Amino acid sequence: MSPRMSALASPLRLARFILLWPAVAAQVQAQGLGMSSIGATGGLHIPSAYVLGNGETALSLGNEQDPKLGTFSHRRNYTLGFGLGGGVELFGRLADYQNPLPNWRPGEWSLNGPRDISANLKWQLPIEMRGLPKLAVGVTDVSGGAVHFKSAYAVASDELGPLRWSLGYARSQARGQARVLEGLFGGAELRLWDTHATALLETDGTRRHAGLRYYSEPLPWLGDAQFVGSLYRSFGATSTVGRPADASNFNLSLVVPLDTDDATRERRTRAATAQAALPPLAPLATVPGEGAPAALLDPLPALQAALRAAGLDRVRVGTLGENLVVEYEDHRYLHNEVDALGVVLGLAAEHAPAGARRVHAITLKAGQVVFETSVSVSAFRAYLREGDAASVQASMGFGRLPGYDAEAVQWLQASAPAVTRVRVALKPLLNHATGTEYGAFDYSLAVQARTSATLWRGGEVYADLVQRIDHSPDMEPGRAFASSLHRNGLQTLAVQQSFWLGPRLFASVGAGRYQYNRAGAEGEAILFVPGRDDSVHLRGSVTRLTGTPTPTSPDRTVDAWSALYRWRLSPTTWVEGGPQGFTDGSRGAGLGVTRWFGDAALQLYARRGGHNTFVGLELSLPIAPRQGMAAAPVQVTGTPRFAVGIRTLLTNGGNSGNWVRPDAVRPVDLNYKPEVELLNSGRITPDYMRAQVPRLRESFHLHARGLMR
After folding, report:
1. Which of 48, 63, 97, 124 could form a cystine bridge with 113, CB 3.0-4.6 A?
2. Is 212 helix (H, G, I), strand (E, B) or coil?
3. DSSP letters spanning 579-626
4. Are the C-beta atoms of 671 and 522 separated by less than 8 Å?
5. Residue 346 has pLDDT above 80, yes or no
6. Superfamily for the 3-101+110-257 domain
């Protein structure tokens, strides 16, 4: 028998050995999922058939390295993974193995070992049969210029009491002697009583590993995130010349659920209602003997005061027949307009005058209607008291323009004066170069303060002031990434006008000073496709230098555009693609898939301009409290969307160098993004709003229950 198939290395014998351990009372589930050093859910080094749950993300740092790649004093693995749903798991990995150069200076070539960015993909097969283990297939190092970690594998995993085991087979396609996975691999993880710790033994087909792992409890103060830490040692490892090369390693992971499930929202709601329950439901009154709705306006002043106390702006309430109408503008609940809508619908339903049958919530931005939501008063009041969500969903109505005559509404007041005169939104800016020949991570970090004011209906003036906070030496002038260094000063000063050209065509255009010293115009038109939730997006910008040319500001007209069709597969998933003109002058096409997890969005894309094709990933999320500063003469807020991503150039026979090209094949990037600023980042479809009914209820109880009269 070869050493590879020794007793300890054999997964089957290993499983029998652990089952003889005088262990513990059987427990069906372990404390969570661990991250392997290769960038996948699994053991210490090997993958398992388990995957990250829908909306879960995992960040890891470790120092394990195959000694057949060489001997290095600096060994780091950085991984970032996402559970995409449908049993699909995607990980990105940066492996950085170096011997630091003694006389290295910033701006010089620092590469003397592998520094590789790779992507790993795993799919858990949708097979659910009694007695059958979980099954998955996966690939590591999907693409890129260098191929150090490429392999394909199939694996089975299951749990038996306190024991979790995995057994699989892999074929490596990596160059050289190093093999991430090769041949038969397997391992077992045993829960150690109720200590939140486990013991692991495994083989990856070339080496064996043994270690301990600890799972923390979910941390409510960190969004129910969980820390997972591993300490382990390799056995049977050899160097490129066959010498023993066993090593001790660590891996530390943070698993964060980006989405919040309905059960968690229900727990939060129950905790909030435990302090003060809503009064029992009372029957809706009508005028005796007439059977017609009573026109009672007495509750409306209390409703208007509660809505203003909730921090909303431009609040106006009134009645139109059996309808209670509420207009409002929200710049406080920046994670999602659904939070503000839950506050409005909840307060309106609870304060509805006798005889009111429906609440119509009219959402404004810059004093202009952007969408409308209506719901049955009785159904929503019942739901707030743990009623049936289905009845609320069935009663909901929607419209992107008001379907009523505003002049016919009996408003409590003639106009809705704005409380907020000036808004200041703070947003981080990050330029970076990751995994290059000059460094593992070079960056320029700044903060942007956007000051804006509404001029008239749909019209705004805004100014962006940028202050650099920190940067790496390679970003300094004359260094490798000088073009990515943020500049201080006035970045943008422009006027923006947004308007509807019909019930399904929305447009927003702006003109002014952009990119510090360029004059120009930009805009977007959005056509909502009749009969579908799909949309067509036309974007464009054109700027011309107004000052002295510099290497980073050439004296030429820069124009960029895109014409994209967005196909909505579900309320939280869409695919968009179409022709594009990029900022470097190249023309081509782009394709992207966007998946929403709560208020975080993950986009995978491919863009081809000229002879260059880039693929990448972008994560966007709100940088603000869920409930920010209320409406005030000067309102300071965060940003509803902060996007950070990474991309790589696909290599081919005619383009063999995976060079860093910061300005190549960049799509049109509007300074004012109408979807983000006005349309809830594109999440305004009826199906999406109906799916958010549990969040409407949660938001009311968290943010508005204490405002009830």
Report:
1. 97
2. strand
3. EEE-TTS-EEEEEEEEEEETTEEEEEEEEEETTEEEEEEEEEEEES-S
4. yes
5. yes
6. monomeric porin ompg (2.40.160.40)
> 């593992």: which residue's tokens?
440
Q: Where in the chain is the domain with CATH 2.40.160.40?
A: 3-101+110-257
Output the CA–CA distances (angstroms, integers) from residue 276 to 293, 344, 384, 408, in the order listed. Answer: 31, 19, 13, 38
- Is 62 within 8 Å of 45 (Cβ atoms)? no
Q: Which residues contact 447 (CB under 8 A, 6 or more apart)?
A: 426, 427, 428, 429, 466, 467, 469
CA atoms within 13 A on the CB side of 650: 16
Q: What's the pLDDT tens digit per position in 14-63? A: 444 334 433 333 333 446 899 999 999 999 999 999 999 999 999 999 99
Residue-wise pLDDT for 148-194, tens only, equals 788 999 999 999 999 999 999 999 887 666 778 889 999 999 999 98
DSSP 8-class letter at 458: T
Q: Given pLDDT bands bounded at 50, 70 and 90, which one contains residue 427?
A: very high
Phi/psi region, residue 315 (left: phi>0; alpha: psi -120 to 50; beta: rest), is: beta
Residue 58: how many CB atoms within 10 A of its CB?
25
Closest among 53, 48, 203, 202 to 138, alpha carbons compared: 48
User: What span, in angstroms and rounded, lies between the C-alpha atoms of 154 and 286?
Assistant: 68
- DSSP notation for 513-548: EETTTEEEEEEEEEEEPTTSS-EEEEEEEEEEE-S-
Nearest to 594 by CA among 82, 78, 68: 82
The backbone region for 204, taken as left when phi is positive above 0, alpha when psi lies in -120 to 50, beta otherwise, is alpha
Q: State how far the alpha carbon of 114 is from the alpha carbons of 66, 74, 76, 110, 647, in Å.
A: 11, 11, 11, 11, 18
